[in-house]
Queue: 4 jobs
Job 1
Amino acid sequence: MTEAVIIGVGLHPFGRFPGKPAMDMGADAVRLALADAGVTWPRIQGGYVGSFEVANPDAIVGKLGLTGVPLRGVFNGCATAGTAVALAARAIETGEHDLTIAIGLDKHPRGAFAADPSVAGIPSWYGQTGLFLTTHFFGMKINRYMHDHGISHETLARVASKNFRNAAGNEKAWRRTPLTPEEILASPVLNYPLRQYMYCGPDEGAAALVLCRADQAHKYTSTPVRVRSTSLRSRRLGAFEVQSPSFPVGEPVESPTVDAAREAYERAGIGPEDVDVAQLQDTDAGSEIIHMAENGLCKDGEQERLIAEGATEIGGRLPVNTDGGLLGNGEPIGASGLRQIHEIVLQLRGTAGPRQIPGTPRVGYTHLYGAPGVSAVTILST
Amino acid sequence: MTTTQQPVAEGLFTWPPSVSEPLRLIGSECTACGLVSFPAASDCVRCASDESKPRLLADRGTLWTYTTQNFRPPSPPYDGPETFEPYSVGYVELPGELLVEARLTEPDPEKLRIGQDMRLTLVPYAVRDDGTEVMTFAFAPVEASAEAEEPAGAEDFAQAEPVEEEAS
Ligand SMILES: [Zn+2]
């Protein structure tokens, strides 16, 4: 089977851009990715575009050129971008196309996501009585995890502080003001034990990747980044997942992240010990901590020591969320996972500027988690 | 003036609770594989059977995890009062049945503890323009001193006037 490689990346800044439609941000990201790859839009043979707010993001062809290209819209909650890149890569792997694109764009209104529970197949009383908040799940999951594995409130604050500090070195990040762990611990509790500065916020942004057949990459770049594997898994019965009015008792069932990570490592022939830099879904500081273990990058409970030692800092032995993650960048759902891959590509190329990790990183890892219990993992390498 | 009460949804819990039918959550049990569900579900997410029977769930359990809600949730879907009072939510493990998500009566996280005993109760989470209290289920910590008391029964809801028809 042919291998897919990434030859171009483009990122529209994440944040708030009054008056600028999501489609325009997406078109900007595509143009950056095309320029980075050294290809023009008419040469793109197919692609996938993800968005939550934009009903038919494939309409972006109206801004890029009406070439007749098959561009399919995708949506998988917060794993949307993982789906877009997986399908764009698969179109190359199966020989359908030689040159594809993955695009993500979104423009969320301010504040927490508000939705009608019925669209998620959940009865309306769940929303009426104040249970339909995804932030509850993250508070409850890390509260239980802290109880079981000895994670402290200070460690939550250190994670958030690291991500804001990394974002300060990223001109395209939204929240670039560094905050100390003390300042973070002094912010109001929103959903115990999580505080205001431990949560990411919905915002706006776009990202795009150009992919091609590995055997043609030399025509475009000397630094292709290989898509070693992609995996997307949904929740299994018994796992503790977001938006669940109840779940069965019994033996604990692993989250879809564990399933997706295991599958992605197997397909890539790469183990967690080989990962040089990781981008993990940090909807909140607790999620980053839990996801370190769920993605196999450490054992449950080791995070307390690893984070205190600075292991996940840019200069540490396993840098996590070097561009500021979701905490620093916010979450335009459709674009978020492509932003993660954009960062990994820069790190593997050695062009991440002030946030470049030392040495010669060879393997990068990205992970998404979202409602209603879906995870996507992408493993990349030089 | 008598305060009238109504449940937030039909078929969620026994209503009105009485001595003969005390407060319980109404779940379901798959007739093929026995999986217990809440709220009651006709389709089984384990074996895909579409046959189930109603099952009243245990009114006692232990707190599996919890969090607080310190800001007013977006409306819609939330339809609680404009003047917001923080509340807590958690998952309570009903042994051998399931873990159920619910509001907790204790809003202070310092007074909640994973593993503590909880019992089912009702809370008026909203008041309609005509004064009707809208009731939903919640779990309350079982105080050590209250352990010897009678289990929660109809007497806890003696103030609950059965609503036979729409209050007007
Ligand atoms: Zn069944």
Job 2
Amino acid sequence: MTPETSSPCSCGSGDACQDETQKARRGFLGVAAAGLAGIMLAPGVRLIEVAQAAPNPAATPAGASAGASPKVRWGMLVDTSKCTPGCNACVTACQTENGLPTQPGPTDAQWIRKIEIKEIKTGKAHSLPVMCQHCAEPPCVDVCPTGASFKRADGIVLVDKHICIGCRYCVMACPYKARSFVHEPQTQQKPDVPRGMGTVEGCTLCVHKVDKGESPACVQACAAAGYGAIAFGDLNDPNSEISKRVAQYSTRQLREDLRLDPGVRYMGL
Amino acid sequence: MKIALRQLEGRSPGYWALLAVLAAVSGVGLLAAWTMEHHGHVITGMNNQIVWGIPHVFAVFLVVAASGALNVASMASVFGKTVYKPLAPLSALLAIALLAGGLAVLMLDLGRPDRLIVAMTYYNFKSIFAWNVVLYSGFMGLVVAYLWTMMEHRMNAYSTYAGLAAFVWRLLLTTGTGSIFGFLIGRQAFGSALMGPMFIVYSLSYGLAIFLLVLLAVSRWTQRPLESAMQARLTRLLAVFVACAAYFVLVYHLTNLYFAKQHGLERFLLQGGGLYTRLFWLGQLGLGSLLPLVLLLAPKTRNSRAMLVLAALAVIAGGLAQMYVTIIGSQAWPLQIFPGYEVSSSFYDGVVGSYTPSLPEWLLGIGGVGMTGLIVVLALKWLAFLPQRLDQFPSDAVAGNAH
Ligand code: SF4
Ligand code: SF4
């Protein structure tokens, strides 16, 4: 990766270099190599550690998504005509389900939030939840240097907490403000939802529930509150409730101009 | 004409004092990073609205300046300006030191700096960040090779090629740095192909300003008077670079003003953005462009060494202001998820983000500058980077190059 540290002598022959440095003056290469090793924290020379640090392949995103079917595309449809201003049921359910702070401040994570919007020209107002839109072309995945931010075969976009280095580039890249950085040590973690200081997280579409055949917590809570404003299902299955409604009504994706093809759709906007 | 390169004596109390100060600054920076890692970023001013703060301002500034610091060397080996040849090793050394300092800050500001090994072993090649890791390593390697060809007599013949490779690489490097922002499609202030070239132009002026400061300091502290013709050349060059950078800023804002959808952002940056607006007009333009241009060009000041130092300092201060506006101001401006709508939420949608850098962040950023300085000061003593005299330079005419 960094040839200059693993093999500081670009002439390739250590002996030749030694002869050269027999002169009284200090050789350039030796000092430069020592300096560089220090500067670059010698990433290249710690190969043993690298091997040890490499996580078990079965635990990597590729392994994790082995169970997810590429035939499925999980998605949501939010009916804004049913969503009510002031109702926060989905947000509260998400916080409880995922062990998130319930009175979030500026440094806290918010995986889903209610946004009140009012069209400036017409004054028409809506209230709607916004969470990770589980884009088909997720910029958060594109920019992630390590591949920690990844999309499962079934379209769910997640962060692998073991590989995330906390660079926050994905937070910068997401056009929907769907990602949060964990600013402080976490204590109240849920066994199904690992969270860690210094890493980035966002709505997982309650992947731990979905994999068990359940709906995400927000969807359940919205139904339980009597609004039923969020439909969840497989967008690839023409017979699913969500696909039928998407086929029947006009729906929108947020920031369609960016062509990220989010899995979350809105109707009534 | 043969150029004799020498290392610094490095035995004076002044040298040791400087070394001690730089070591202390670097040490405090490391301590700050450790504290941030221990408590989490909650002790910084950063939050989920503004996730890149002052450390990024310093880091990006240093990394951009690194590629620009190579200017003088490039002019000697790539553009055949032999007159700059004696200064080429110093220029290459600065490039390495600045890059190292900047990268250290960038790395120590990660949420998980302990996972450096992960960053080095897991690559997503679609990520411009991952590309940058390759670009940084390659730049280090090429500049070291280049230095080698300059400083090892039997390798001298290859220095033009090594210099050319380093020059091309540094263009790529800074394009890569600019593209970190250029590829952010969701953020209004970024997402432009202009970012790459614009950062290259910034790098020219930041890098030369820093080079000048170091050169003048060495010249003064080691009593090697600098030839006034050389000073005049570098003065003119800096003026040209500063003017180019200002031109790019103008184009950037004019294009934005042309697009109706960018008007809100521009009004924010140029008019109603509080600190960001002040930093733009007073810092970036006033201090970073106008003042240095006047100092570098006005007949009364252009020959004064003190004024040159002042101009270089102003370019640096202006550059930091510029990075602050570019990196933080652009995050403060809220994402437009619902263009044409008024929005509000518990997650500060539609609200200008607020950010006040905390002490550990400042210390980490300044620590990076300390590390850069430390590397330079140590290297100057270890190896012969400096020409023995700064009052004699080979003329271009001798080498058959007009200028
Ligand atoms: S909404 Fe944001 S975080 Fe979610 S997939 Fe799209 S870009 Fe990524
Ligand atoms: S913060 Fe983590 S998930 Fe996001 S881009 Fe960086 S490494 Fe990837």
Job 3
Amino acid sequence: MSDHETSDDTRTDGGSPGIVAPDDETPTWRERKERTTGLSRLTYEYFERARREDQDLRTESDYVERDVLAFPTWPHETVRNLSIAAFFTGMIFFLSATMPPHIGAPANPSSTPAIILPDWYLYWSFGLLKLGPLNPDLAILGGQKLTADRTYGVLANVVVVGFIAIVPFLNKGSARRPVEQPFWSAVGVGGVVFAFTISLLAVKNLMPMNVHLLFDLTFLLPIVATTVTYAVLKTMREGYMYDLNRRYYRLRPPK
Amino acid sequence: MSLEKKDDMDHKGWMKRKELTPVETTFLTALIWMDKRLRIVDYLELLEDLYYKVNMQMPKSHTEQYDLDNKFWYWYPLYALGSFSTLAYIVAAVSGALLGFYYAPAQTGDPSTAYNSITFIMTDLQFGFMLRSIHRWSAQVMVAAVFLHMLRVYFTGAYKEPRELNWLLGIVLISLTMVFGYTGYLLPWDQLAFWAGQIGVEMSLSIPLAGEWIAQLLFGGFTLSQATLQRMYIIHVFLLPFVVTTLIAIHIGIVWVQGIAEPH
């Protein structure tokens, strides 16, 4: 963390990004190559020429180099990922060999199974379809519902996905880590917890607990999680600020 | 005007000025001749670059370079999830293509042919059980990886300013991944498939105004039949692979152009 930061907003990211220069003793690549003699030296000179020619051509052309602040995909990310690719593929094969799939009874339209469930990753969506009790009975319509319960459930899916989609248009700025953005991280944690609780609501036939309690917890737990996360992250950010201040005063003791 | 190509860079003049020995002249002439045709400069430069990177000094890590006090090394495994889902997608595609040789939905009438061909793959076909297992597990792993990838992107704020488009594209991709999964587990035409399909039909029917049209389009009717299976098959093995592969390519291409938004 830098101590010369003067701006008021909280910086927990270490201040200005400065690229660290190589040691003074380390000869540069150019110096190393310039020491060589003979054919390799000749090759080097030709290459330098060729590179300059390319550079000139590039300068003449209308090619624009863009300056985007980010980490390059190649080689950093790609090398890191290639090195774990084999491991991950092996893991998939291992899972396939040890836990083979099951095939159920053939489809039978005349016998509805006691429990109807999609695959696990659609539980959240299936849970949203069971939000009928939240569909308001409107007084102006004489206690009638504006939409059918299942339309309401499908609409809930659209609302959830729609909210996730507009997040980048609501949350701007350069904060990159949860501590820097307690609010949005808390919202995120709330969302994740809601995805879990709504999935549990989807499998309510299998849950050994009161259905009404389960329904209430589905909405209460995410709120609790959001609040706790917000408090924790705020506190952590204060901690960072405390650390910054302590260092600052150690450098410049108050008069 | 001569037909001979002009030596724009004046290589001959450069060589004359250097007062070279015959060995050197031969070497340089050969080098320039090869270079003009094969651009070996570029490749040697890459090799050279690699050589020095490997031997002289390790490139500084992100944390060192930006002086971050080793604050976020623990994020690093999470940055592989995007690649991991791509990898699982490739494994699923290959195993799915192999399964496609043996699986067929019925052409007409009775959809139980689908169930029988799955039974055939799992009981009679050499390696068939493993093949289906791989296809299923890679699909499960892909969905899980895509979900976790999205969480990583959210919590590290990687969707921010120049990357909104990729976030939207990602939401389309995660939805299509789930549609892939849905159409996939409808194909065996067992009880899970049938009743999941029933839920799908009811969901489409409950959409105001367009509901019946959508149910017709996606499921081929208001009740499940052989037409439903046929449509799910076409969506799963013909439509989605092309669409999703293209979108993944664009998604990764944008990441490539914009760079990885690691937390600074």
Job 4
Amino acid sequence: MSRRKTTVLGLLRAAPTYAILTLLGAFMLVPFLWMVTTSLKPSGTTFSYPPDLIPDTFDFGNYVNLFTLAPFAKYVLNSVVVTVLTVVGQLAFCASAAYGFARLSFTGSKSVFVLFLATMMIPFQVTMIPLFLIVFKLNWVNTYQGLIVPGISSAFAIFLLRQAFLTIPRDYQDAARIDGANEFTVFFRIFLPLVKPALATVAVFAFMGTWNDLLWPLLIARDEKMRTVELGLAYFNVTSSAYEQPNWPLMMAASVVSLLPVVLVYICAQRYFVAGISLSGVKG
Amino acid sequence: MSSAVQAGAVLEGRAPAGDRPARRRRRRRSERVGWLFILPATAHLLLFALVPIGFSLYLSFHEWTSPSFLGAPFVGFDNYISLFSDDPFWHAMWNTAYYTVLSVPIGMAVSLALAVVVNQKLRGMNVFRAVFFMPVITSWVAVSVIWITLLSPDAGLVNYLFDVLHLPAQNWLDDPHAAMFAIVLINTWKTAGFSMVIWLAGLQAVPRELLEAASIDGAGKWRQFRSVTLPLLAPTTIFLVITGVIGGFQVFTPMYVITEGGPLGSTDVAVYHIYQRAFEEFSMGYASAQAWVLFAVIFVVTLIQLWFIRRRGESNLI
């Protein structure tokens, strides 16, 4: 059989698959295309029938209005502050705890770890009311601490990082100790660099979870100045639908802006997204 | 800082191996170091997970009606007893079960189909995988905004498509019979890529030799899939069913943003109901009791599923 023949045959055989893939891809992508093109229609435009997927002229006014009519820049800033600090906090808290659980032996370590795993089973709804009351009592409603502190540690991240630390051979630890390194040096200089992929996975998940979260900011950011992008977007919808049609093109522009950072991170760190999901699938 | 600590460790580490007090001191030191590493996260766990869990139980036995209200009256099991005759709550629980029963199988079937299609060695497959994953990274709020307009009865893209296909137009989000179904479809679109990745990991663990052997025995593609691949995917299936059911019972955001529990309470699910009781009516004690009942239901349903799996002799899978 000649090489060329197999290629042609392969292409013919692959054609139906590509057709199916393209159709499915269209199902996934058309809503996004719709979002982008609608955001480029003049503000306050109502939809026409039949729907025009691609408008005749592109109007970037919504993207300007977003920042002049609404305090959207403030929302973005809030989201950035809350997300960055949550990610940094989770990395610091969870990496050190995971290292302690995986590589250091001390009394009580096992029982505390089991306690961490047990809390993963309690759903957020059970803790959300008392958590809100605690934050309220601390006078943290409408503050960055209120938005950030409850989320800076995660049992799942500790679990994931502990698994990563466990795969490293014991010799690394021993060799460094013989060379006179203490536990903190071993942790920072040797173990942390070795689990970079797991750290990236945790960072990506913490980023996505925090940036896209609605429920917690909804409870804590009562003041407009403290709203995150997601909350701002949700309020555009909830408040406007009560007495008038929402300004759809403007909301689509806001959606595009809210999506951009996530898409950027996804493009840069695609394999860590997938790694995190595969890991979450393995843990069952 | 690190150099000073390091010097101390070197000095201490020099103690001869047979020196007992030194060894004990070193062990005590390593105990301290271990706790030092887990202390921040453990303190956080205590304050923001364990205390709230205990506090939540406490709340559920009190008539707590304001966020700043301290010294609320103890009401015993009253909150739990009132629950039994609270029809709107059970209506919400029923809606939650309906949503779960509808969304889990549909989501699993669609994502498995995606995984099978994507699990082929073809040029450009990574692009398709990335495309199918796009909705996963999109927030529920943005997804909601997009789909409210796509499902708009008179100008939405979906009804236009229905019109082209000569199907009757639907009043997707305003019809009490259609709204929950619409949310299930949106959920499927949003989460299929996530389950696809998990299925894909399962599919790639299927040994090629087994499929080849089946093919030599005369099994067609479909037969190979049904008799070889599918049984080998049992652990993935079980994982997706159990986590899917747990997640289904906790659904909130689409109901909050898209339908606000409506129309006519047809999408009022448990968490949305609890949210409203707690943060719009400020019946925080009563809402806490509802949250515990929801947790108990999830717990029992999960146990029943595990029992079924055990009984079918697949206990080694969990």
